[in-house]
Description:
By secondary structure, this protein is mainly β. The protein has a single domain, classed as outer membrane lipoprotein receptor (LolB), chain A (Clam), CATH 2.50.20. Helices cover about 10% and strands about 45% of the residues. It is built from 3 helices and 10 strands. The chain has a 10-stranded antiparallel beta sheet. A hairpin with a 3-residue loop joins β2 (about 85-95) and β3. The N and C termini lie far apart (about 105 Å).
Amino acid sequence: MWLSLIAAAVLAAPAPAHGPTLATEDTMHTEVPEVLVHAPRVTLDEILDRVARGEAHRDSLIRDQAFTVAARLVSHVGEPKHAPELMSEEITRVYKKKPDHARGITLRKWEKKPPKKGDDEPVSVQYKSDTSEEIVNFAFRPENRRDFKYRIAGRDVLGGHLIYRIAFEPRSTLDPSIPSGLVWVDTNDFVIVRQEVKFDRSPVPIFLKDVNRMVIERQQVDSLWVLSRVMLRATFTVPLPEVGRGIDLSLQFSDYAINHGVPDSMFTARGGKK
């Protein structure tokens, strides 16, 4: 009986494939010896202190700068019955010089629907002489640290650089205008090279339904980290004429000239700010 059962099992088994047969190795084992590390791991507070010093040092190295910023507004974002549409684009050359000089010169401006005659007064955009880029490091300034909670979200090695990912969120939920977010810190200089910001609640609930996400990135120019682009997507509570319910706003920064010596005369011309 047993022989017939074994024979039936063999006959039912698939025929072996042609070619070499590989055996399973169960006699070889490898093991990496443990290494005791005596150096203490850098604490979160030490990392935050180094980021504050790194950002301050970055700003101290900039005496003057010039750059071009392209601002673009796209309407009807995320609407199934309407394709996204470019509403306006403005290219500006910005000049800054410490301690208190700043000026922006409009190079090109386009609007899908130009203002009517008589209502064509240009919007006055004021540029600050400050070069610390608070939009990037607002949550990591020493004076603001008490308003946020922080945690290390991860560590990565990219191109020979150790990158810390640090998450932050407001200590209090009472103020909806204070966002939470995630930053990427390059430990070579301890400066923030990328930031993602989100609002758990609308900062302006009557007007805005939500701010889906805000991304801020930096680029390295002459060994200094400076703004590269800012992207924001927002949804309105009700559709706006010519705009719809959703918009994308982007700022692209390029053509940097840092510490090349911007003359004071650049800020005394008509339209400049001294």
